[in-house]
UniProtKB/TrEMBL annotation:
<dbReference type="InterPro" id="IPR027417">
    <property type="entry name" value="P-loop_NTPase"/>
</dbReference>
<keyword id="KW-1003">Cell membrane</keyword>
<keyword id="KW-0547">Nucleotide-binding</keyword>
<dbReference type="GO" id="GO:0016887">
    <property type="term" value="F:ATP hydrolysis activity"/>
</dbReference>
<feature type="domain" description="ABC transporter">
    <location>
        <begin position="6"/>
        <end position="233"/>
    </location>
</feature>
<dbReference type="InterPro" id="IPR003439">
    <property type="entry name" value="ABC_transporter-like_ATP-bd"/>
</dbReference>
<protein>
    <submittedName>
        <fullName>ABC transporter ATP-binding protein</fullName>
    </submittedName>
</protein>
<dbReference type="InterPro" id="IPR017871">
    <property type="entry name" value="ABC_transporter-like_CS"/>
</dbReference>
<keyword id="KW-0472">Membrane</keyword>
<dbReference type="InterPro" id="IPR003593">
    <property type="entry name" value="AAA+_ATPase"/>
</dbReference>
<dbReference type="GO" id="GO:0005524">
    <property type="term" value="F:ATP binding"/>
</dbReference>
<dbReference type="Pfam" id="PF00005">
    <property type="entry name" value="ABC_tran"/>
</dbReference>
<keyword id="KW-0067">ATP-binding</keyword>
Length: 250
């Protein structure tokens, strides 16, 4: 197995003349949870979409799950799970029907078993006949995660998976993420929540499309030039203040 599930260098995406992701280097070891943080519009979603093969980088190179991000996007898509910011399942189908639909898309040979496993894994057994549109935000997120897992991916790319979800549901969601990582799943998860950042094994902080800091929480604090024991929030404020001088347009 590849030791690095994500290993990219110089990843760049331009819209017009503007590089919204600018020469990003990112390495995440197999089985680790990497938190991806940064202000709104800093390039997190664009980076995630390049990593999972949905968006072709304009420059850069590297591998996800050992596959070339430029030439093997199909293989990456088949072996990774991508959870978008918006709930993308069918509100007028039940939990079970939604999962069955995703299993069909992946043409899974043992569809019923895959759906059973996903339902069980995410604690959705009791609710499997409930229409997705009638679920609360927390349960919708769980269903979305179940849908991401149906094809047994090795990498999860989660784009603000818990935005707008209450603290209890967020905690339960993170317990699932940690359990998956303990089984060898690699997770890249974007978030604006500091408590979630604290739960990650490592962090990557992006602003203005550029990666400003990377490492464990204490390493990020150190890279922000703050003393040991300073909070991550302080570190991010410091990093963005510094970046503003370099990147902000008048
Ligand atoms: N298809 C596109 N065409 C033009 N500009 C785009 C396109 N997609 C994204 N952008 C711009 O690229 C920048 C980065 O967007 P991106 O969605 O990657 O940021 P983000 O960090 O995920 O933001 P948020 O935290 O708000 O979700 C933004 O300024 C956005 O407007």
């Amino acid at each position: 197995m590849t030791a690095l599930a994500i290993d990219v260098r110089g990843l760049t995406k331009r819209y017009g003349k503007r590089a919204v992701v600018d020469r990003v280097d990112l390495q995440v070891a197999t089985g680790r949870i990497c938190g991806f943080l940064g202000p709104n519009g800093s390039g997190k979603t664009t980076t995630i979409r390049m990593l999972c093969g949905l968006l072709r980088p304009d420059a850069g190179e590297g591998r996800c799950l050992g596959f070339d991000v430029l030439r093997q996007s199909r293989e990456i898509k088949l072996q990774s799970g991508y959870m978008t910011q918006k709930f993308g399942l069918y509100e007028d189908l039940s939990i079970r029907e939604n999962l069955d639909f995703v299993a069909r898309l992946f043409q899974l040979p043992e569809r019923e078993r895959a759906v059973d496993d996903a339902v069980r894994r995410l604690g959705l057994v009791e609710r499997q006949q409930q229409l997705a549109g009638t679920l609360s935000g927390g349960w919708k997120q769980r269903l979305a995660l179940a849908a991401c897992l149906i094809h047994a991916p090795r990498l999860l790319l989660l784009d603000e998976p818990t935005a707008g979800v209450d603290p209890k549901a967020r905690r339960e969601f993170w317990d699932h993420i940690r359990a998956l990582a303990d089984e060898g799943m690699t997770v890249l998860v974007s978030t604006h929540y500091m408590d979630e950042a604290e739960r990650c094994d490592e962090l990557a902080y992006i602003a203005y499309g550029a990666l400003l800091a990377r490492g464990t929480a204490p390493e990020v604090v150190q890279q922000a030039g703050l003393p040991e024991g300073a909070s991550l929030e302080e570190a991010f404020v410091q990093l963005i203040a510094r970046a503003q001088d370099n990147f902000a347009t008048p």
